């Protein structure tokens, strides 16, 4: 009997080995089957107000491509994970996508998590288009595989500041304040913008910190009033911008608010109502009601799904464009479907036309800033109306 | 030849000395079992891919933290809802020491543990006067204060952006390699588990349990209440600090949101689900709580084709599900997974006579 015990134990260990062995290893990227693209989105976290439509846009574009025969004859598969704006979970999601699902490129989301991932992205050679346009991600030395599909937050803020300077008619230098949230995303453009303001002769009068999910910004707005800010640049998402605008209106502020990319979309108007009138947004992507030719494609695609373009917002288009640029890189990689191949593919984009959905995108081997141009739009009668053409701070 | 059911590990064992009775592994069968388990854990990198291996490392780190909390809450009976914050102290200490002072990770790790232990012991000071709910609130204060410090002590902690670590190396081997990292974590967690197991059958462990069961009676028996409570806090936070340091090396970022109240509650969930006052139970609990969200996200992915809305729903349900699991455990098996495992073992051991 003593011998049998050994035998049984041996069988047991062997059984476990087999079970574990079968369940384990992720498949290597293959030349057959669908092309796998990863998605790390915020569907339930602090920025889910803009994260959900963005993810929808990405899904829609990939579905659209598959409807039209995929890329080079292969379907595209999106492996998406919700990370709830939690860096820890983003790291986990990233590892799963790269090591288990073996995706060749990733569409990511936040500033903090993309920055946390950048060393891994560089080591694993995974082309990464983030929803974040933080200046730090444009540093080609530390982020050789990150691509920015819109003007960086710093460039956006600078372009807005330049517009302020050029259109200022009051006496003395214009007084500008910054309203932002205390995350890497919120803080990202502030230092650069302040430096630029000083250079071009704009007075910076203060900083106001408002939480991403805050429901009250009265103290901050009171402070802004006391400081007599003529302009305030808002870096946050729709919720933050709406809260800011509502409380500013309540207190009768004369300040002109200018929201950067994520703080300016239709949702702000919906949430803030009349308080949003006159609000200026930095707009790097088209609105669904623009008449860009690229919108026709989206409209047709949505019609095939029984949906309407009017129900979608600008963040949907932003997701659509991000996926479009990534898949263009994948297409140009041809048969060299590796991280390096896709990077080369993306770097061959020159004045790539997204159908007017964004400024033309150019990547080179030395710069992954897709563009530095944005448009400004002002809310008039509950709708963003462009007040400038594509402008940049340069 | 002794005729015996092969699973039995302690049938027919008669001890004649206390040392034998209290031995770490009382029988040969137990030794064999542990050796097999150990071999399996060592062989894991060859059995599974890199992603499951990372999950295994994560479970090991969480298990280390959970064992620490179990020493404090399960053995010494002192509740703590600030465990994640103590873990954060360790992580930030390791992060700051390696990135700002350029210290070696291997030196920073024990220092991080020590820093967490000192902070933990400091916040354990009120435990002499406070019990139960009051102590829970006092440790909650620790959590809130430390959370605040993580965000505001920018020169040390990097504020909201946190610290980004470079992966430490072990001679020619880099901890960026999943296999190397796994072995390091495994070794550390095993050491932690064995230490805790040994502690629980030592004088200190018995003192902890005496305090837990009735502190007044323990004091009458000559147990130094204050000293042992502080020791429990010190030890528990030391474990948390080590786990935090390893977590820092694992995610390579240290940010405030990794160490929030939610995580403290998760640790409490781990030891409740695993089994209060059971060292191995905390390991089971840590595995359960760490694997549940991953299993859920796989489920969501599998269901995506059928029910597209499930993705959003399931990720939102996660927290609710934790709550449900804890309630179910409290009702049906208050002694947790450890007891459940024992029931299963007993069933097979006693089969076909269930008594």
UniProtKB/TrEMBL annotation, chain A:
A Gene Ontology annotation in the biological process aspect, one of them, is: amino acid transport
Respond yes or no to whether keyword RNA-binding is given for this record. no
* Chain ranges of the Leucine-binding protein domain: 34-382
**Could you list the residue ranges that cross the membrane?**
none
- Quote the Gene3D superfamilies the UniProt record gives: 3.40.50.2300
Could you list this entry's UniProt keywords, alphabetically sorted: Amino-acid transport, Signal, Transport
The residues the entry assigns to the signal sequence are none
PANTHER family with a match to the protein in the record: BLR6548 PROTEIN
> Which family does the similarity line name?
Belongs to the leucine-binding protein family.
The name this protein carries in UniProt is ABC transporter substrate-binding protein
Source species taxonomy:
Bacteria, Bacillati, Bacillota, Clostridia, Thermoanaerobacterales
UniProtKB/TrEMBL annotation, chain B:
Q: Which residues cross the membrane?
A: 32-49, 55-72, 79-97, 103-125, 132-151, 180-199, 230-251, 263-281, 313-332
- Give the location in the cell: Cell membrane
* Keywords of the record: Cell membrane, Membrane, Transmembrane, Transmembrane helix
This entry's Gene Ontology molecular function terms read:
branched-chain amino acid transmembrane transporter activity
Q: How does it sit in the membrane?
A: Multi-pass membrane protein
Q: Please give the GO cellular component terms listed in this UniProt entry.
A: plasma membrane
Name of a matching Pfam family: BPD_transp_2
Note the InterPro entries from the entry: ABC_transp_permease, LivM-like
Domain of life of the organism in this record? Bacteria
Q: Which CDD domains match?
A: TM_PBP1_LivM_like
What is the protein's given name? Answer: Branched-chain amino acid ABC transporter permease
